[in-house]
Amino acid sequence: MTDRPHTAFAFYWRNERTILGLAMILLILLFWEGLSRGWWADLLHPLFGASAEKLRVRPIFISSPTAVARKAYELYFVTGGIWRHLATSGLEIAVGLGAAIIIGIPLGLWAGRNRLASYALEPFMSAFNATPQVALLPLVILWVGTGFACRALIIFMLTILPLLINAHAAVQTVDPRLQRVARSFSSSEWRLFTTIILPSSVPFLLAGLRLAIGRAMVGVVVGELYGSAIGIGIMINKAGVLFQTDTVFVGVFTIVAAGLCLTELVRHIEKRVQIWRPDAAEQSS
Question: Does a structural domain hold residue 69?
């Protein structure tokens, strides 16, 4: 009997992040359901009178968690209408974000190691960072049209910058003492890069990747608003025009879930390579 409180506390501390996150989500869903069903208006009406009716929101404007769940079940398992949108949007993210990773990370690492390349690249990074990429959408449409290439290019433009900046900064923050020790042992530039610079840069690269994932989710919605006939973004837009708020929330939550899954995957990878960092190595020892 005396071990049960201790066991409960141990379980809580092991899963504190998950428990608190789920509790907050449940509270928000409960409040949301109450707004759509008028629970809070009925509860507070004896205290505030007619003013409490402001908490009675029409479902056409906000829907409800239960209505969204029913619509999600319908779109995923009954009609299956969302899967073709998911396939198109997923391919756009894969191409746009993949190209940004392939180009942005090596370019940033190279510029961080090469003084002349860094001087040449920094003004463009600063200017592009200060420019709202969405403002370039009319030019993108003029260049490549409104097809798949346009949407992939928009995602590429939104995601390459955090990868490029983080890769560039990662190389410049490597401990110079480690580099001097490696050179004192006649280490080649390639061996120095693969054994010291790249492992030290991994946390920065993964942080940039997390930022890029968030931007990719924005880019897929923005890109599909320009001439796309299929995709999660255009599904959300069409449902909003028709006041189908439950479908809108299904699309939004789908994007949120995809972003969270990708971010958690990056976080898991970061934990696996955490041993490479000096502070993590000291703690583990």
Answer: no
CATH number, domain containing residue 92: 1.10.3720.10
Using the predicted structure, report yes or no on whether residue 7 has a pLDDT greater than 90.
Answer: no
Each residue of 9-28: pLDDT tens digit? 788 888 888 889 899 999 99
Cα-Cα-Cα-Cα dihedral sign, residues 115, 117, 119, 122? negative
Q: Nearest to residue 71, comparing CAs of 249, 260, 258?
A: 249
Both structure tokens of 206: 């993964």
Give residue 26's domain range: 3-57
- Which residue do the tokens 């239960």 mark? 66
Instruction: Clarify whether residues 42 and 123 are in a common domain.
Output: no
The pLDDT value recorded for residue 131 is: 82
98 and 173, same domain (yes or no): yes
Cα 206 from Cα 209, distance rounded (Å): 5
Torsion (CA) 248, 249, 254, 256 in degrees, nearest 10: 120
Render the burial of 177-189: b for 16+ CB within 10 Å, e for the rest.
Answer: eeeeebeeeeeee
pLDDT digits (tens, 9 = 90+) for 40-60: 888 888 888 888 788 788 777
Q: What does the pLDDT read at residue 282?
A: 43
Average pLDDT rounded to a whole number, residues 82-104: 94
Residue 244 dihedral angles phi and psi, to the nearest 5°:
-95, 75
Crossing angle for the helix pair 198-224 and 245-272, nearest 10 degrees? 170
Q: Indicate the pTM of the whole model.
A: 0.82
Which tokens go with 97? 């974000």
Do both 135 and 238 map to the same domain? yes
Instruction: Give the per-residue pLDDT at 123.
Output: 87
The amino acid at 212:
A
Q: Cα separation of 216 and 280, whole Å?
A: 30
Residues 156 and 29 grouped into a single domain: no
Q: Are 156 and 100 in contact (CB under 8 A)?
A: yes
